[in-house]
TrEMBL record, chain A:
Membrane-topology annotation of the record: Multi-pass membrane protein
The species this protein was found in: Hevea brasiliensis
Pfam families (UniProt xref): EMC6 (PF07019)
InterPro entries documented for this protein: Emc6, EMC6-like
Name under which the protein is recorded: ER membrane protein complex subunit 6
Lineage summary: Eukaryota, Viridiplantae, Streptophyta, Embryophyta, Tracheophyta
From TrEMBL, chain B:
Organism of provenance: Hevea brasiliensis
Protein name (database record): ER membrane protein complex subunit 3
PANTHER family registered for this protein in UniProt: ER MEMBRANE PROTEIN COMPLEX SUBUNIT 3
Parts of the chain that traverse the membrane: 14-33, 119-143
SMART domains: DUF106 (SM01415)
Family: Belongs to the EMC3 family.
Top-rank taxon, per record: Eukaryota
InterPro entries documented for this protein: EMC3, EMC3/TMCO1
Membrane protein topology class: Multi-pass membrane protein
């Protein structure tokens, strides 16, 4: 994960008082980084949830916890100045939340069944 | 009815894992096949020109505040002038371009190929799953669902007292279908994941692109208010330099 993140972030705006000028290419690259890391984390989180035998609500709470941790990690990587890397807060916090959900459920079911039922 | 059913290990070995493996492999295969089958399409000069004009207009709009107001207005007139402005398309011509696009044989073939390469593997796999893997409990989903999902998830199983969490292999197929999208985007790199809804939207949006977006660009260009930002830049430069020096 660390290696992946290091090469990912790029500065996307000039230090702005009022003006926000963004390099579209860098912005898109940052979006991609977020998407990849969240997908990867949701898959790994699914396997963890299955192995540990989480059921029902506990599993979903674990998923949201993992997404929150990944958001915090990304914000920390952006040195807490979110506006110089992204154009609004929603991207880094809310965007990928439900995208990784299906992968999480798939791998959660898979690991849970393999370990506990069979 | 909350006891845990113990399922045969053979189900795990011969149903869950092979089904997932097959779906991953089919996804990879489809990716490579679509790469091979992509015919090179000679781009129509007129359409490319229109696309570039739109890009120029968009750049003008985003950079409007960095050029002096007279220069901005001159450029804007060049684009949206009634007689020979680039963005102005008379109504008669607009309809033509759209009709031409749909009757173009190359484009129709392309769309059909893309459609087919998406639908056929899905249909085949679904038929295969239904034929071979029906009539038994395949997996248990770790979270409880209401009774209404029973008919959807437990399709081959005819006992009504079994907990809804125990699902048939058809629902395992659907779960795989949605869940492997994330995996594909990771291993195949950059959005080559099969996202049917996205592809369909792209395909239906393509036909309308040139004609409507021209007038849309013209309207948004007309709306822009010019506010020259450069006078403030001296103070900004001063602030930045001061921060650097101190």
């Amino acid at each position: 994960m660390a290696g992946h993140n290091e090469s990912g972030k790029k500065k996307s705006s000039e230090a702005a008082n009022d003006l926000q000028t963004f390099s579209a290419e860098n912005l898109q690259n940052n979006m991609k980084v977020i998407y990849y890391s969240q997908t990867f984390l949701s898959i790994v989180g699914g396997v963890i949830a299955g192995i540990l035998g989480f059921k029902g609500l506990a599993g979903f709470i674990l998923y949201f916890l993992i997404m929150a941790i990944s958001s915090v990690g990304l914000i920390a990587k952006a040195k807490f100045s979110v506006h110089s890397y992204f154009d609004c807060w929603n991207r880094i916090i809310f965007d990928g939340f439900f995208g990784g959900l299906m992968s999480f459920v798939l791998f959660w079911t898979f690991a849970y069944d393999i370990v506990h039922i069979f | 009815m909350a006891e845990d059913l113990v399922l045969d290990t053979a189900i795990r070995d011969w149903v869950l894992i092979p089904l997932s493996v097959v779906m991953v492999l089919i996804g990879v295969l489809r990716y490579f096949v679509s790469k091979l089958m992509r015919s090179y399409q000679v781009p129509d000069a007129k359409i490319v020109k229109e696309g570039q004009v739109i890009v120029r207009a968009r750049n003008l709009r985003s950079g409007a505040n960095f050029i002096p107001s007279k220069a901005f207005r001159a450029r804007r007139v060049y684009f949206s002038n009634e007689e020979n402005g680039l963005l102005f398309v008379p109504k008669g011509q607009a309809q033509n371009a759209q009709a031409q696009m749909f009757s173009d044989p190359n484009m129709a073939m392309d769309m059909m190929k893309k459609n087919l390469s998406m639908i056929i593997p899905q249909t085949l796999t679904f038929a295969w799953v239904n034929f071979f893997f029906s009539g038994f409990v395949a997996a248990k989903i770790p979270f409880p669902l209401t009774q209404r999902f029973r008919s959807m998830l437990q399709n081959g199983i005819d006992l009504s007292t079994v907990d809804v969490s125990y699902v048939s292999s058809r629902s395992w197929y659907f779960l795989n279908l949605f869940g492997l999208r994330g995996l594909f985007s990771l291993i195949l790199g950059e959005e080559n994941a099969m996202d049917d809804t996205q592809r369909m939207m792209q395909m239906s949006g393509f036909g309308f692109d040139p004609t409507k977006s021209l007038s849309a660009e013209k309207d948004s260009l007309d709306i822009v208010q010019h506010e020259w930002a450069l006078p403030k830049f001296e103070q900004r430069a001063e602030a930045v330099l001061r921060k650097l020096v101190s």
